[in-house]
Design goal:
Structural class: alpha/beta
Strand content: 15-25%
Number of domains: 2
Radius of gyration: 23 Å
CATH topology of the largest domain: D-Maltodextrin-Binding Protein, domain 2
Number of strands: 11
CATH superfamily of the largest domain: Bordetella uptake gene, domain 1
Helix content: 40-55%
Oligomer: single chain
Distance between the termini: 69 Å
Length: about 300
């Protein structure tokens, strides 16, 4: 075979290989990803302040994700807007699998409702939900309200006087649901940055109460008292705390990627995520959370159903 014919066959082979990669990219609906993905650090965006539920989730998952993926997981904080700043940052990120984010449901839906925040909750590539907690109404340890009955009685006698903190617009919706159920009026105090910033306000008696999740109620039970939790059954982690079945508040934590991230990358991230949840399962339960294990399709369906609910 002549050198000319060998060169022609070589170039023809390269063209065929390039065409195959292009075809796979088109079928996948996005850019082709190298077979050795990931081969460098992955950035994990936390849209809320350090110390909150999202930060706790990211820190729990970080070691397991690093072990499963073989690269460093670099946690960064992009706070503000009830999570909207971080979600917007992810939405603008390159869909190559090297930027992921914590997601909180329903926060991501509430922050986008009726506002031009630059993203649509249904557009993200959901990797999986990992934990869920029901709502909780908490007061400082030295509060004059020792139970829900006393809290409600005072609120009815003094409509609008009690201050109740919550995280952004989501907290406002959740507080309004509980207040309507209890037949009271309170003054809502929005907190930007997450529960990590709300707890000091409660501990310092800057607000009368706070609406958050049962996981935070467990974590801070030496500093705060929980008057009631949402859902149709009591929590083993909060013995003696009554539940209110009519209060449907639940907070769910998960992980997502930018819109358009290829399905093969999401599958690899999902496998790593589900591996990372196994060694922390007992810790999750102890902290008042319910562990979750999902496929990407189940996570997407979960978000779509919640969007429909809102």
């Amino acid at each position: 075979m002549t050198k000319r014919r060998r060169r022609c066959r070589y170039h023809a082979g390269r063209l065929l290989a390039s065409a195959a990669v292009l075809f796979m990219a088109i079928v996948a609906g996005g850019p082709a990803i190298a077979a050795d993905y990931p081969d460098h650090d992955i950035t994990f965006i936390v849209p809320y302040s350090p110390g909150g539920g999202s930060d706790q989730q990211a820190r729990r998952l970080q070691p397991g994700l690093q072990k499963a993926l073989g690269v460093n997981i670099r946690i960064v904080y992009k706070t503000g807007g009830g999570g909207a700043i971080g979600f917007s940052e992810l939405n603008r990120s390159k869909p190559d699998g090297y930027t992921i984010s914590n997601v909180v449901v329903p926060n991501i839906i509430v922050t986008a409702k009726g506002k031009n925040v630059g993203y649509k909750p249904g557009d993200f590539a959901y990797i999986g939900m990992t934990a869920q907690a029901v709502g909780a109404l908490m007061v400082p340890k030295n509060s004059k309200f020792k139970n829900l009955k006393e809290f409600v009685a005072y609120a009815k006698t003094n409509p609008g006087k009690l201050t109740v903190a919550g995280v952004g617009n989501t907290g406002e919706v959740q507080t309004a649901q509980l207040a309507k159920l209890l037949g009271i009026k309170v003054s809502y105090v929005p907190v930007s940055g997450g529960v990590g910033k709300m707890i000091p306000m409660l501990v310092g008696n800057h607000v009368d109460a706070g609406v958050t999740s049962s996981s935070h109620a467990v974590k801070h039970k030496t500093e705060l008292n929980t008057l009631v939790i949402a859902g149709d059954k009591p929590s083993e982690s909060l013995p003696g705390v009554p539940n209110e079945a009519g209060w449907k508040m639940a907070t769910t934590w998960g992980v997502m990627a930018p819109p358009g991230t290829p399905a093969d990358v999401i599958a690899k991230l999902n496998a790593a995520l589900n591996k990372a949840t196994v060694p922390v399962r007992a810790m999750v339960i102890k902290n008042g959370l319910t562990p979750m294990h999902q496929t990407p399709a189940e996570a997407k369906k979960f978000v779509q159903e919640t969007i429909a609910d809102f």
